[in-house]
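This protein record is not my work; I was only asked to verify it. Where you disagree with what is written, explain briefly why. This is what I was given:
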Amino acid sequence: MNQKIKVVYDREDQLRLDKYLVDLRIQELYSRSFIEKLIADDRILVNLIPVKKSYMLSNGDQIDLNMPEPEPTEIIPQNIPLDILYEDEDLAVINKPAGMIVHPGFGNPDNTLVNAIVYHFGNNLSSGKEINRPGIVHRLDRGTSGLMIIAKNDIAQSLISEMFARREIRKTYLAITTGVPDPPEDAIETYITRSISNPRKNCVADEGKWALTYYKTIRLYHFFSIVKVKLETGRMHQIRVHFADRNIPILGDLLYNTRRQVHNVVPENMKRKVTELLTTHLLRQALHAWRLEFTHPVSGKDIDIQAPLPDDIAYTISWLDKNFGIDEIPVSIETLLENNINW
């Protein structure tokens, strides 16, 4: 199915169409030459009319992008290390590192999780729900670390997909927020849709895809918090969008939470330390898919797996303990998680 993207130009100054599309940094528009080809093929329209790449956009112009079907490509097995936390003949659970893209796409033909699992599991993978995505049942954002289920045959793929649809797979995330949640425990229920001002983002809207997120604060800091998050639905960027809408965006999430926003929260004498953290240690959103609980779709075995915290998030928690802690002797993160193992 062709992907359709709609953007509304919302700048007062005029700008060339091709330059603006490059500035958007949409993953699907991975190069200037590809953008120029789409314009030449009339796949990019302005106010429903084909235009040249030099067209000068004005405030309010509507840009429609009709993306072509991705070309089938051979998946190259690559010996990329995998952290496999569980495996049997039907499925595996891996701990995806932050920074790894799940599957090949526009501008990202290799070095993805799919390239890695094809190398490690070979033909022992399901065909996948979509082209070039063997074994993939669900996804995590590039900057999100943590647990993913890999299907090793088509029967497991079908059964696991049905379990996700019936919300029988319980997913728990850990997140560090900029700001303190109020109330400390709540459910966030909205509709989510793609932003028309920035198609890289999603946003809360009056209509779109229904999304439900539960959260519970497990540690408070001055100006920050650690929260446990449970997803009832699995929309793109769901946690990031919901928390940004509540004005408690995820720390390090430069798409929904700029460094300036973080600076506006902390005292003047801490701004430099925040900058150092976000440019040296935490280079992505502080969001980790920590726990998966489900009944094995074939064996009936109860599966409960937790992924250890990655180094950058563990460092950030220690940094928060030191610089913004409320307790004189904070409980270790391991004890904190153990004490909050149940919702």
